[in-house]
User: Fold this.
Amino acid sequence: MKFFHLSLLLLLFAGCAPPPAPPPVPPAPLEAKPLRLADFRELPMWQESTPAAALETFLNSCRAIARRDGWTQVCNEALFIASGDEQAARRFFEEFFTPWQVVNEDGSRAGTITGYYAPELAGSRVPDDTYKYPLYRPPDDLLTIDLAEIYPGLSDYRLRGRVEGNRVVPYFERGEIDGTANPLAGNELFWVADPVDLFFLHIQGSGRILLPDGEKVMLNYANQNGRPYRSIGKLLIERGAMSRDQMSMQNIRSWVNANPEDGRKLLDENPSYVFFQELEDGVESPLGALGIPLAAERSLAVDPRTIPLGAPVFLAASWPQTEEPLNRLMVAQDTGGAIKGRVRADFFWGMGADAGAQAGRMKQQGRLWVFLPKTFQAEPRVGLSKP
Assistant:
C-alpha cells in the first residue's frame, strides 16, 4: 500500500512538472562566399588546354570592358600576344590573372552547364503560302518600367506591360500574340516557314534568316513581353510524354510535329515572347550581352551577379551526353533568363543545325573558375554587371 501511495504521488508530481524544453534551433548555415582563391594547377588539363582562341575572344570583349576599373592594363597587354601562340597565351593568363573558383551558396562547387546556339531559318520579308509565321520587332505599345528610382533594391528587374484605359496591364502572352486576333499586326519583321523553328528562335534569342534570294540576315534579341518563361520540356516530362533521359530539343521537335494540335497548345503554354532586331550587314554571329559578337565554343552565358561580363572563365565539364572531359578556357560574354545561380552557365555552340544538335543534348555537371586581374583586391567584388 505504501508503494502504491508513493507511486501515485510520483505520478501527480510528474503531471505537475513543466514540459521539457524544446530542442535548440540550430543556427542557419552560413552562406558560402561566391569565390574561392584558387591556383592554375587546380584547373583540369590547364597545361594541355588551348587558350589562344580564348585570348582572341577576350580581346573582343575588351572593346566593351577596357575602361572598367582593373581591366585596362590586361586589355592593353593582350594586344602584344601573337595570335595563335598557345604557350604565349597561357603565360599571359598566368602572369596577369588570378583564378577564383565559383562556389554555390551551400559550399558545393558543381552546377548545371547547358548549351545554346543561333538557329538558321528559311524566311521571307513578305508572307506567302510557304512563309506564314511572323516574327516581330518590338511593338510601340510595349512599356518597360525601371523600378530602380522608386525601389533601389529592385534595380535588377524591369516590368513590361501596356496601357489599357488608364491602367498598366501585363503585355500580351504568346497564345494571344500568335492567335487569330493578331494584336501585333504591322510589326512583322520576317515570316518563316516552320512554327517550331520560330519557337526555338525565341528560346535561343538570336539567329539568322535565310532569304529566298540567298541573302542572310542576322537577328538579335531586342525585347521581351515580360511574361515568365515556362519550360515545355518540363511539361512533357510531368505529363509522361517522355522521360528525363529522353529529353532533348530534337525529341521535343519530333513530339510537336507528331502531335500538331496538342503541340501548338503546348507551345502556347510558354507565355514568354521575344521581339527581334535586324543587325547590320557583315555581322556573322549574334551579339551577346556586351554587344560583342559571340564566338562559337568560346563564349559563355553566365549570371553576372557572380561572374563579371567580359572575364575569362575556365570550364571543367564533359561533352554532351558523354563522360569525355570538356575542359576549356572561355569568356563570359552573355546572359540569359534561365541562367540564374553561381555555378550555372550556357555554352554557345555556334550557328546552324550542327550547333543546335550539340546544344540540344547538353545538360552536364561542371565547375567554373573566373579569371580576375591580379590588380583586383584579394577579396574581389562580384556582381559587377547587372543581369
